[in-house]
Amino acid sequence: MSGAGSVVFVLCAAAALVSAVLTISARRPLRAAVALLAHMVALAGLYLTLHAQALAALQLFVYAGGIVTLFVMVVMMIGTGDSATGNASEQKSARASLLARVAGLAVALIFAVLMWVALGDNATRIPGLPDCDPTNGGQCDAFGGIAQLGHALFGDAWLPFELTSVLLLVAAVGAIALHAERRRQPSTQRLPTSSLLASAPGSTESGLPGTASTISHRDHRQDP
Amino acid sequence: MGNELGHYLGLAALLFGIGTAGFLARRNMLIQLMSIELMLNAVNLVFVACNRWAPGDAQGQVFAFLVIAVAAAEAGVGLAVVINLFHSRRTISSDTIHSLRN
C-alpha cells in the first residue's frame, strides 16, 4: 500500500504544482480556468490518497464541476480580447511582478517553516498513513466515508451547516440582486426587443394582426 | 517509506505560496479570483491531512466541507461583481479600477 500510495501522491502533487503555476501564469483566462480544473482534479486525487473519499467526491462535484464551470461561463461572457481581460495593463514593471513572485515564495517558505516548527517530531516520526486493516478496530474503516462526514455535519456541526445553507441562499440572492441593479440602469447594451417585435416581417400578415399591433403598441408605451 | 504528514503540509505551503504570488502579481481580476481558490484549496489540504493523522473525529473534513461551501458562495458573488464591473467599465484590470482608493 505504501509504495503505490507514494507513487500516487508524487504524481498528484506534481500535477497540482504544475497546474497551479500554469493557473497564475497563463496569459488567457480560459487557459487559467482549464489549469485550475486540472488542479482541482489533482487535489481530489490527493484527498483519495488520504482516504478521504467523501471529500474527494465533493471536491469534484462542487469545485471542479461547479466553481470552475462558473469561471468558464464568466470568461465566455467577458470575452478573451486583449482590452477586455486587462492584458494590456499587465505590462506593469518587471520589478513589481518579480517582487510579487518573491513575496509568494517567501510566504510559502514561511508557512512551511512554521508548520515544521509547530509539528516538531510529528512531521517525520509517524512512518506513514495509519494502517487501515479491517482488524484495526473499525476506527480507520470509517474514516473519510460519507457516513462519518454525515454524522459530523448533522450531529456536532449542525449549526455551521445550517448557517452555511443560509450563506449560500444569501449569496444566490445577492448575485441576482447585483444583476437586477444593473438592469435598472439605462444601458446601451440591452436588446431593443420592442423594435424587433414591431419590425417582424410576418407579424402583420399571418394569424392575428390585431394582437401583433397591440403587442407593439404596448411595448412602445413601456419604452422609457 | 510511506507518505508523511510533513509531505502534505509542505505541498500545501507551496500551493498557498503560489496562490499568493498569483494574487499579487496578476492584475486580471478573474486570475486573482482563481488564485484565491488556489489558496483555499491549499488550506483544505492541510485540514484533511491533519485529520488523517488524527482520525478520531471528522473535524478536519467538516472544516474542509465548510470551506468548500463558503468558497462556492464567494466565487458566485465575486464573479457577479466582476461581470458588473466589466459591463460598466469595459475592463477587469484591478490597476484601472481603483476609484475607492483615494
Short description:
The complex is a heterodimer of chains A (224) and B (102). By secondary structure, chain A is an all-alpha fold. Helix content of chain A is 70%, strand content 0%.
How would you describe the overall organization of this protein?
The complex is a heterodimer of chains A (224) and B (102). Helix content of chain A is 70%, strand content 0%. Chain A is built from 9 helices and no strands. The radius of gyration of chain A is 27 Å and the shape is globular. By secondary structure, chain B is mainly alpha-helical. The model of chain B has no long low-confidence stretch (mean pLDDT 87). The interface between A and B is large, with 100 and 80 residues.
Keywords:
heterodimer, A: 224 residues, mainly alpha, 9 helices, globular, disordered C terminus, B: 102 residues, 0% strand, elongated
How far from one another are the termini of chain B? 56 Å
Query: Would you identify the regions of chain B where 5 or more consecutive residues have pLDDT less than 50?
Result: none
Largest sheet of chain B: none
Output mean pLDDT of chain B.
87
Strand fraction of chain A: under 5%
Total strand count of chain A, please? Answer: 0
Largest sheet features of chain A: none
Number of separate helices of chain A: 9
If you compute it from the alpha carbons, what radius of gyration of chain B comes out, rounded to the nearest whole angstrom? Answer: 17 Å
Q: Largest contact between protein chains?
A: A-B, 100 and 80 residues
Helix-strand string of chain B = HHH
Helices, strands, pairings?
The complex is a heterodimer of chains A (224) and B (102).
Chain A: H1 2-25, H2 29-49, H3 53-78, H4 94-119, H5 122-125, H6 146-154, H7 158-184, H8 193-198, H9 209-222
Helix pairs in contact in A: 1-2, 2-3
Chain B: H1 5-25, H2 29-52, H3 59-89
Helix pairs in contact in B: 1-2, 2-3
